[in-house]
């Protein structure tokens, strides 16, 4: 996997209008440089290190949009029993292994937070309708990341890069062929509703201080990613997972509010009304998420203890420190 991170970037160049003017004629004795207008002093060309992205559109956070997503999410739910009814060679632990690998790839490539949950939705929907050999499960996972990155990334992952992450066990041509098969089985409907789509709606409705919103969003996104790796949440509606993740993040951060809306009972009742769900179901979902977090944190601590051994130092250097790393969750 180290080969994917060594891409070379071309060095950009910058040049100002004043520099162009200085080179437009030879300097004469006694010349005094005339001041240029402020707008002419701006750089004509420069390299931007970070990718420019659009800001959140407030018009997409209205109740009308939220209700439309609640109606649409049922159309993108995978079958809850596909391991028993469809798959003969693939079992739940294999899904967990490939999901963990997909999450690591998305973290290392610093993909948008939406990419991994969307890729897992594609994978589960495919496995709900098409039996597959276990030897081709990683190929399917890479294909789902390929499609999800095309949907959400400004610069999507390339087939060649994804093949490197499989240790070149698959070829780009195989990935492209699987892409066509996946599109066919998904009926070319890639606009899935994921838990990530609901997070901003919930945050906009809660009395949370603006300074706290960023860390709250980060924790909720971490929980969403964890849920995507666990088979227990396959049949859970995205709105339920998102609401449970936000509630778990608020309770874990011990946020307080003057109007007590952020208290455990009031928050569960409020979010259940927003997603039109039973409060007990939402509370059960939140408890499952918190339990999953405890298990993940325990495993991360064990891995960290192993990495203190000289043999594990190299492995520790490879671990991700992106926002979806459970070791960053201080709960």
Protein model, in words:
This protein has 331 residues and is mostly helical. The chain is 54% helix and 2% strand. The protein has helices at 17-22, 63-72, 82-85, 92-108, 115-127, 137-152, 159-165, 172-185, 196-205, 210-229, 238-253, 264-274, 279-307, 313-318; strands at residues 15-16, 43-45. It has a two-stranded antiparallel ribbon with strand order 1-2. Helix 5 (115-127) packs across helix 6 (137-152). The longest helix is centred in the last third of the chain and has 29 residues, at 279-307. The chain is globular, with a radius of gyration of 24 Å. The model is unreliable at 1-33 and 312-331 (pLDDT under 50).
What is this structure's SSE topology?
Layout: E1 15-16, H1 17-22, E2 43-45, H2 63-72, H3 82-85, H4 92-108, H5 115-127, H6 137-152, H7 159-165, H8 172-185, H9 196-205, H10 210-229, H11 238-253, H12 264-274, H13 279-307, H14 313-318
Antiparallel strand pairs: 1-2
């Amino acid at each position: 996997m180290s080969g994917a991170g060594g891409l070379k970037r071309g060095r950009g160049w910058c040049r100002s209008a004043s520099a162009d003017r200085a080179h437009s004629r030879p300097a004469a004795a006694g010349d005094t440089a005339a001041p240029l207008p402020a707008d002419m002093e701006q750089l004509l060309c420069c390299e931007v290190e970070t990718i420019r992205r659009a800001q959140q559109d407030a018009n997409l956070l209205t109740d009308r949009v939220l209700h439309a997503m609640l109606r649409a999410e049922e159309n993108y739910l995978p079958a809850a029993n596909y391991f028993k009814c469809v798959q003969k060679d693939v079992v739940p632990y294999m899904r967990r292994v490939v999901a963990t690998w997909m999450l690591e790839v998305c973290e290392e490539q610093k993909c948008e937070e939406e990419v991994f949950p969307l890729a897992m939705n594609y994978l589960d929907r495919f496995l709900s309708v098409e039996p597959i050999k276990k030897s081709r499960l990683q190929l399917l996972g890479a294909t789902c990341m390929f499609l999800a990155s095309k949907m959400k990334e400004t610069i999507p992952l390339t087939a060649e890069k994804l093949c490197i992450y499989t240790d070149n066990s698959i070829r780009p041509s195989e990935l492209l062929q699987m892409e066509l098969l996946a599109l066919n089985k998904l009926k070319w409907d890639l606009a899935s509703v994921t838990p990530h789509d609901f997070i901003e709606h919930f945050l906009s409705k809660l009395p949370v201080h603006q300074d706290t919103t960023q860390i709250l969003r980060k924790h909720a996104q971490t929980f969403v990613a964890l849920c995507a790796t666990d088979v227990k949440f396959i049949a859970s509606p995205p709105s339920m997972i998102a609401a449970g993740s936000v509630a778990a993040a608020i309770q874990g951060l011990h946020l307080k509010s003057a109007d007590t809306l952020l208290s455990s009972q009031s928050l569960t009742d409020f979010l259940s009304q927003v997603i039109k769900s039973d409060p007990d179901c939402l509370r059960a979902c939140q408890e499952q998420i918190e339990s999953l977090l405890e298990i993940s944190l325990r495993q991360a601590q064990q891995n960290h203890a192993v990495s203190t051994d000289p043999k594990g130092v190299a492995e520790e250097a490879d671990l991700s420190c992106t926002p979806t790393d459970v070791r960053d969750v201080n709960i």
